Amino acid sequence: MAKQFLQSWLPSADRVSNLKFMRLFGKHATNPLIWYVNRKSIAKAVFIGTFFGLLPIPFHSVFIAVAAIFLEVNLPIGLALAWLSNPLTIIPILYLGFWLGSKIYHVHMINKEMILGVLHQIEHWITNLGHGHVDCSLAKILLSGLMIEALIFAVLFYVLTHIFWRWSVLRKWKKRHQIKP
Q1: By CB distance 3.0 to 4.6 Å, which of 53, 96, 107, 147 could disulfide with 81?
Q2: What is the pLDDT of residues 109-163, one digit of tens each?
Q3: Which residues, in sequence order, are CB contacts of 68 under 8 Å at separation 6+?
Q4: Contact at 8 Å (CB) between 17 and 31?
Q5: Three-state secondary structure of the chain
């Protein structure tokens, strides 16, 4: 059931491989293995898409495409999960990332004074054309937390994909055997 749904929902290989940034990958973008729908390919694509999709980095779709092509997993599912970080979810993603980072480094959560101090440093750095100091300790805390958060959610969604796929197959199998007398 999950396989039929995904095959009907996913775009065709021709449509995605004709996207501008996919032309960078040339013949690798038409590899049939990155369009194949099976449990392992989808679960690995969910892992890759979730991991890079939760990291608020520029061009994360390119990182997802490179990883999907290199590991030969389902490309459209991975690219669809790039939308995990969007204007509605970025604040909770950053908050949870900073919370995890603050637990790792045993520091207090960010407060108003810390934000104002960093903004003042950035403003001073910009007005002085790059001369000055910007405290990057908060960035270290945030980036560490975001990496841990992305890894936790990627593993969680990977396992949930396997569980859901198995449940779907068993449900379909039971339904098929209940019909027969």
Answers
A1: 53
A2: 777 777 777 777 777 777 876 676 667 777 888 889 999 999 999 999 999 999 9
A3: 34, 45, 48, 74, 75, 78, 79
A4: no
A5: CHHHHHHHHCCCHHHHHCCHHHHHHHHHHHCHHHCCCCHHHHHHHHHHHHHHHHCCCCCHHHHHHHHHHHHCCCHHHHHHHHHHCCCCCHHHHHHHHHHHHHHHCCCCCCCHHHHHHHHHHHHHHHHCCCCCCCCCHHHHHHHHHHHHHHHHHHHHHHHHHHHHHHHHHHHHHHHHHHHCC
Neighbours of 181 (CB within 10 A): 3
Residue for token pair 């779709």? 61
Block residue for tokens 């908050």: 95
Residue closest to 165 by CA, chosen among 37, 15, 34, 22: 37
Give the mean pLDDT of 34-50: 90
CA distances from 175 to 5, 18, 168, 178 (A): 17, 40, 11, 5
Tokens representing residue 150 in the block: 């992305």
Whether the pTM exceeds 0.70: the reply is yes
Q: What is the overall mean pLDDT for the chain?
A: 82
